[in-house]
Amino acid sequence: MSKIGVILRREYVTRVRKKSFIIMTIIGPVLFAALMIAPVILMKLEGDEQKNIAVIDETRMFDDALINTEFIKFDFISDDYYLPGLADYNLTRAKNELKYSDYYALLYIPRTAVTGGRGTVQMFSYKQPNMGVKMHIANGIEKHLEDIRIEKKGLDYGIEVDDMRNILRAINSKIFVQTLTLDDEGGEKETSTEVAMILGYLCGFLIYLFVFMYGSQVMRGVIEEKTNRIVEVIISSVKPFQLMLGKIVGVAMVGLTQFILWVVLTFGFVTVAQSLLLKDIDVSMLSPATLEVGAELSAEQSATDDQMIKLESVFSAIQSIDFVLVITMFLFYFIGGYLLYAAMFAAVGSAVDNETDTQQFMLPISLPLILGIIVMISTINNPGGSLSYWFSIIPFTSPIVMMVRIPFGVPLADVILSMSLLIISFVFMTWLAAKIYRTGILMYGKKVNYKELWKWIKYK
Asked: Would you say 54 and 109 are in contact if contact means Cβ atoms under 8 Å apart?
């Protein structure tokens, strides 16, 4: 065992000292943090830019509908482009002059915008308007049209506008489906199918990525040592099985180290970015406590209340997830899946002289992983189905599929069976790969096929 430790330590130290490892360890968290922070920063930067929007309103109804904000100003220029006697507007001239003006965009509200069930307005600009501007305009016009129609209906029935608005709100029904899971003791726990789907997909895909990435490193390391004839010197001191096991476990420790550093550094980068770049944003407004207060706002903000209820539900569902269980299962299936496939990658690396020759042996290794990704999509839609069950039990696909099922809740018996079979399969595959490894590691200049591998396995 001391010799395996030496090999393990050599593999670990050699790889963590490589520039590629250091660069990826830093770049990975930066990219992950950027994915979380960049949208907020971009929205903040876009919001800080002054936007003057010219408005041609054929209806002359929306002067009070489009409210100026700190960074969005509306300038109604309908009179400047009105064509007397034609009851029309010179929109073409307005569009041509937009290029040489200081306006951010030109908003055109045709008469047809107030007719029919769903009107259309047009906004012309020389660069793509951001979503915040579009939403501000759409919400303002929609609310104003709603008030106009409420007033018209109220007059038709002799009802005051405020009373009409309250009646419409009273009969407006919106249903939110709250999901709750029950335990054996009758306890309830709020869940979210959407949160479980996202978490399961993320865990399953990361398992696939890590297993393939680090398993390939084992194969390339074996090929490199075999090509350089270094392995001949190493084999004179250690047994082939010890060398293979040391390389597999050593690379596994490298993968765990990088994964832990990614988690810690990503959390650190996000925290620093929030404190420095987003210090003006009150993130506490997204807390469940604040959402509960927001849910008690007046009826004038019913649309905002609906969004707050949805956010509150998501926060409650996230808090209900057993992250200790998810992380524990992730580490187990990452290590188990990696060890299973790394043994096969090591066997392939020992059987060939260069990476080009590995293609004929890669299909049987890659196919189960790809199949796991395909079944993962089906599992997200039906985590309790027979297809999901069997693929979460079969060791070659269980690391991916079981991680998708975990956030939805899996019977303990299924988890134990899946874990046990994965351990047994790893031990068997390591033994099988060792028989190929001990012969192939010293084999040079010979094209190996599956028949030859079978002979190596049967050697005493």
From this structure: no
Which of 69, 55, 60 lies closest to 125, judged by CA? 55
Q: What is the pTM of this model?
A: 0.61
Of 99, 94, 49, nearest to 75 by C-alpha is 94
- Highest averaged pLDDT of the listed ranges 218-222, 349-353, 361-365, 371-375: 371-375
Distance CA 290, CA 306 (A): 14
Banded pLDDT at 434 (limits 50, 70, 90): confident
- Angle of CA points 26, 45, 39, to nearest 5°: 50
Domains of the chain: 2-39+194-458 (no CATH), 51-171 (3.40.190.10)
Closest C-alpha among 265, 264, 254 to residue 213: 254
- Structure-token pair, residue 28: 């990975």
State pLDDT tens for residues 248-300.
888 888 888 888 888 788 888 777 776 775 555 444 444 444 434 343 333 34
